[in-house]
């Protein structure tokens, strides 16, 4: 059961309820209850490309907190869920930048694990840190496993990862619009299931 | 896949994100119901991690809160507990704001 009644100690032995940022955003009508489910699924997806010490829930709560405290304001006309998804993306990028800077401050360790290339080559074409590379490879495999029984979905995934547009993928795979839309619907269903399931998403 | 795994994964996530943002609400409620959850119910398991604080976030907020409480009480040390009046509103923006920089 979700516990929204966390407490903070205000004085010795005295506690007061602490409202999670998502609850406050809901109360302020920045998002709907269904948006919370949508954002949970999206946060779990973004969480796949984060190191294990950063959870998808932290990423989501931090995004809400940034919007609520005004450090990221939702522009007029932009749906709250879409904006919050963007904030999560930016927090994630920030996290990897910080990690990269920390690695660069340890030149010996960095070189030992570097996949290849000199310092000059790295400046031109930065290699990801090995941890990020490994996490990504594992997660691509895990996402593939979600669609193991759906060869069309697997081909769409490969196309998306290669940077192709929906139209390019559809014409390469010679799918009718109906077949393509139906594959997308199956993919969404699998993603939503994985994103809302209890415990560790597959 | 012909790109680096990290690049491929980010493209994949971005593509999925667009799909999910455009998906109708019914797909999410149906997905929750398939898993035996009822999002309409107060405290539904579908909202775990969203409408509750993670232990890490709770700890960060509590640390921030204690820090703010002690800062607030310092200038009026010796006076009765008036400084704690502000501190007694933990769900307000100030607590959440503190978290952002935590």
Short description:
The complex is a heterodimer of chains A (202) and B (102). With 202 residues, chain A is mainly alpha-helical. Chain A is 63% helix and 5% strand.
What's the SSE blueprint?
The complex is a heterodimer of chains A (202) and B (102).
Chain A: E1 6-11, E2 14-18, H1 21-27, H2 33-47, H3 56-68, H4 80-104, H5 107-113, H6 119-124, H7 130-146, H8 151-161, H9 166-172, H10 177-196
Antiparallel strand pairs in A: 1-2
Chain B: H1 5-22, H2 25-34, H3 55-73, H4 84-87, H5 93-101
Helix pairs in contact in B: 3-5
Describe the structure.
The complex is a heterodimer of chains A (202) and B (102). Chain A is 63% helix and 5% strand. With 202 residues, chain A is mainly α. Chain A has a two-stranded antiparallel ribbon with strand order 1-2. In chain A, strand 1 (6-11) and strand 2 (14-18) form a beta hairpin. In chain A, helix 2 (33-47) packs across helix 3, helix 2 (33-47) crosses helix 10 (177-196) and helix 8 (151-161) crosses helix 9 (166-172). Chain B is mainly alpha-helical and 102 residues long. In chain B, 59% of the residues lie in helices and 0% in strands. Chain B has five helices and no strands. In chain B, helix 3 crosses helix 5 (93-101). Chain B starts with a helix and ends with a helix. Mean pLDDT of chain B is 72; it is low at 76-102. Chains A and B meet through strand 1, strand 2, helix 1, helix 2 and helix 3 of A and helix 1, helix 2, helix 3 and helix 5 of B.
**Largest β-sheet summary of chain A:** 2 strands, antiparallel
Compressed to H and E, one letter per element, the order of chain A equals EEHHHHHHHHHH
The helix content of chain B is: 55-70%
Structural class of chain A: mainly alpha
Distance between the termini of chain A: 21 Å
SS summary, helix count of chain B = 5
In quaternary terms, these chains amount to heterodimer
- In whole angstroms, how far apart are the ends of chain B? 38 Å
Widest sheet, order of strands of chain A: 1-2
Report the order of strands and helices of chain B: HHHHH
Rg calc of chain B: 21 Å
Contiguous uncertain segments of 5+ residues of chain A: 115-125
**Biggest interface between chains:** A-B, 78 and 63 residues
Tell me the β content of chain B. Answer: under 5%
The whole-number mean of residue pLDDT values of chain B reads 72
């Amino acid at each position: 059961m979700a516990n929204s009644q966390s407490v903070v100690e205000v004085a010795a032995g005295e506690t007061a309820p602490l409202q999670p940022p998502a609850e406050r955003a809901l109360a302020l009508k920045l998002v709907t209850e269904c948006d919370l489910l949508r954002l949970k699924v999206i946060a779990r997806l973004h969480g796949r490309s984060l190191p294990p010490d950063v959870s998808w829930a932290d990423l989501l709560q931090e995004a809400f907190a940034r919007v609520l405290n005004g450090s990221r304001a939702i522009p007029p006309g932009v749906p709250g869920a879409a904006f919050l998804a963007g904030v999560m993306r930016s927090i994630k990028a920030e996290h990897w930048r910080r990690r990269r800077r920390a690695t660069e401050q340890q030149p010996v360790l960095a070189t030992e694990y570097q996949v290849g290339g000199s310092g000059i080559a790295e400046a031109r074409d930065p290699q990801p840190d090995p941890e990020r590379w490994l996490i990504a490879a594992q997660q691509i495999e895990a996402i593939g496993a979600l669609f193991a029984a759906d060869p069309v979905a697997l081909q769409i995934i490969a196309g998306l990862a290669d940077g192709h547009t929906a139209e390019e993928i559809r014409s390469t795979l010679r799918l009718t619009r109906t077949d393509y839309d139906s594959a997308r619907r199956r993919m969404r269903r699998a993603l939503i299931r994985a994103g809302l399931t209890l415990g560790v998403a597959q | 896949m012909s790109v680096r795994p990290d690049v491929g994964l980010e493209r994949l996530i971005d593509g999925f994100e667009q799909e999910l943002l455009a998906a109708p609400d019914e797909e999410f409620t149906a997905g929750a119901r398939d898993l035996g959850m009822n999002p309409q119910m107060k405290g539904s398991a579908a909202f775990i991690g969203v409408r509750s604080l993670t232990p890490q976030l709770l700890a960060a907020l509590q640390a921030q809160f204690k820090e703010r409480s002690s800062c607030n009480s310092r200038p009026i040390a010796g006076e009765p507990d008036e400084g704690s009046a502000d501190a007694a509103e933990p769900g307000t923006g100030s607590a959440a704001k503190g978290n952002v920089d935590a």
